[in-house]
Write a structure and sequence with these properties.
By secondary structure, this protein is mostly helical. Helix content is about 65%, strand content about 5%. A hairpin with a 2-residue loop joins strand 1 and strand 2.
């Protein structure tokens, strides 16, 4: 059995031994029990949280991908298998999937999230058709929403925006009347709409969802008795009924606040895409209020939301509205922060590709090349598989001479100058 074929718990054990650590020493550094470490290494306890795997990797002084056994060369070009995902989404019957326990299905969804967060898009494309069948068979709104969100996010990245929109819409339908699940699905809806240049629709969708998920003190709009006035995408004010069936006086969890904050970030980026800088700043400021009130959470809904996410949104918002100088000034300080390095590889890689575009706006080819090379080192698939990154590479590679790092990337993705 090769190292890549080993269960993750066995890899944790091997690296622990290599670092001359006992189970108790590892447990102490993780602030967990020795029993927890033992169960992880024996495979009794599943490791399906990105934050936990990253914490283990930090203590063991290895890349998280080493623990996942996924350090393989990343081929260039969109991964094969999108047609298989399309075929599953085109089906309206409920498949007779092999009988699986809910725990097994949840574990599959957890590993799919990990594959996405580590930008292993080729692997994810291969597993998604089977996963979508499995979650349909499980008939759980929660796992359905999560699986469709993963599918939507991946398809949008691979340039299949309309198909990604369909998957996001399926997530919204699966959420039903659950306000939390509907809010998480709205994140994917907004991403798909923004990717298809429908920023006004994305702004309306995110504001409506944010009103349902955030506490009244951090709602993005003022309220009236029984109703909420919602800032419309054109600056007008429309009325939307609050459909919160959870009862008055209920507390909002950390995870729900993180979803609400993510919706505000998406709304801010949509507003910037509409050219409404004032609205974008207001929404980002509100997202700051949500982020600063978080005491730290286990990212139940896979948002990666926090103060650093809001700061990165400010950079991208400034770049979208054409203020690349401000964007790059903010960027230069953010990437040196520990909080940035702790974000998932997918998040960092996608951000750096967007920053490369900002450097292009000011004519700084070397800065753009440096951002692309950094993105490739963090999440190769973000650069080698995404059509958007390919466009940026092509533009930089037209320079004479092309920066060395980008010349190499252009060769990898099959571009010629």
């Amino acid at each position: 059995m090769t190292n890549d074929d080993l269960p993750i718990g066995r890899r944790v054990a091997r690296w622990r031994v290599r670092r001359s650590m006992t189970q108790q020493m590892l447990a102490d550094r993780l602030r967990r029990s020795k029993s927890w470490v033992d169960k992880v290494e024996r495979g009794v306890r599943a490791l399906d949280r990105y934050s936990v795997i990253q914490e283990l990797a930090d203590v063991l002084r290895v890349d998280p991908e080493v623990l996942l056994g996924q350090q393989r060369p990343t081929p260039a070009g969109p991964p094969d298998g999108v047609d298989d995902i399309r075929a599953v989404l085109a089906r309206y019957d409920i498949p007779q999937a092999p009988a699986q326990t809910m725990e097994e299905v949840r574990r599959q969804v957890g590993y799919a999230w990990l594959s996405y967060q580590h930008a292993h898009y080729g692997q994810l494309v291969r597993v998604l058709p089977g996963l979508l069948d499995a979650v349909q068979g499980a008939r759980s709104a929660e796992v359905l929403v999560q699986a469709y969100r993963i599918t939507s996010s991946l398809l949008v990245k691979l340039g299949e925006v309309d198909l990604g929109w369909l998957a996001a819409d399926r997530a919204m339908a699966a959420a039903g009347d659950d306000p939390v699940l509907a809010a998480t699905a709205a994140i994917s809806v907004a991403q798909a709409l923004r990717a298809s240049n429908r920023d006004r629709l994305a702004l309306a969708a995110t504001l409506t969802a944010a009103n349902r998920i955030l506490p009244p003190t951090t709602d993005p709009t003022p309220s009236r008795t029984g109703d909420h006035e919602v800032d419309g995408p054109l600056g007008d004010r429309t009325t939307c009924q609050r459909h919160d069936h959870r009862g008055e006086g209920r507390g909002w969890s950390e995870g729900e606040r993180a979803v609400g904050g993510t919706l505000l970030v998406q709304a801010a980026l949509a507003a910037a895409g509409c050219g409404d800088a004032r609205r974008a700043d207001e929404l980002t400021d509100r997202a700051v209020g949500v982020a600063t009130n978080l005491r730290g959470h286990d990212d139940t809904h896979r948002t990666s939301f926090g103060p650093i996410a809001v700061d990165l949104a400010r950079v991208l918002s400034a770049a979208q509205r054409g203020d690349a100088d401000e964007a790059l000034h903010r960027h230069s300080t953010l990437v040196r922060r520990e909080a940035f390095r702790r974000l998932p590889a997918e998040y960092r890689g996608a951000y750096l590709v967007d920053v490369a575009r900002a450097y292009l706006q000011v004519g700084d080819l070397r800065g753009a090349a440096r951002a692309l090379v950094d993105a490739d080192s963090v999440a190769p698939a973000e650069v080698r598989c995404r059509p958007l990154a390919r466009t940026v590479i092509a533009e930089i590679a037209r320079a004479n001479p092309a920066p060395a790092g980008v010349a190499r990337l252009a060769t990898l993705v099959g571009l010629t100058r």
